[in-house]
């Protein structure tokens, strides 16, 4: 039997933000007794979720080099839309194994929200545990 919860991450501006503890606080009830897997979906196109070393401060800088905001963007309704391209490259969902009711992440791994917009936003997440 599956479990699902929709929740909102705290308001953040541009950058790569470690959100592992925030996610765990929201999905703790769904993890109990589960050993199959988890899928987390971010319901936005201008931010992404990723797993990385939980003390990595270089990712935002590297993404700005790969997809610079000063390109001649055609879609500029909300400013330069490097955010949509970055979100497509990083992705909006994660699949994390569960072992004995816990996320089975590596020793140094953490869940990151990569926010690509300069203005602070809250972000909606749908966690589905199967």
Describe it for me?
With 130 residues, this protein is an alpha+beta fold. Helices cover 22% and strands 38% of the residues. Strands 1-9-3-5 form a 4-stranded antiparallel sheet, with helices on one face. Strands 2-8-4 form a 3-stranded antiparallel sheet. The chain has a two-stranded antiparallel sheet with strand order 6-7. The radius of gyration is 15 Å and the shape is elongated. The termini are close together. 22% of the residues are buried.
Name the overall outline.
elongated
Our count of helices gives 3
Residue runs with pLDDT of under 50 for 5 or more positions = none
Structural class: alpha+beta
Mean pLDDT: 90
């Amino acid at each position: 039997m599956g479990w699902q919860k929709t929740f909102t991450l705290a308001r953040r501006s541009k950058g790569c933000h470690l959100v592992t503890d925030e996610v765990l606080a929201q999905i703790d009830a769904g993890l109990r007794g589960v050993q199959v897997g988890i899928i987390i979906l971010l319901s936005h196109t201008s931010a992404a979720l990723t797993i990385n070393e939980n003390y990595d401060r270089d990712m935002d800088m590297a993404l700005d080099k790969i997809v610079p905001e000063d390109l001649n963007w055609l879609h500029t309704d909300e400013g330069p839309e490097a955010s949509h391209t970055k979100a497509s490259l990083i992705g909006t969902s994660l699949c994390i194994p569960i072992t004995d009711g816990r996320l089975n992440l590596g020793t140094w791994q953490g869940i990151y929200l990569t926010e690509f917009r300069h203005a602070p936003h809250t972000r909606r997440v749908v966690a589905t545990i199967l």
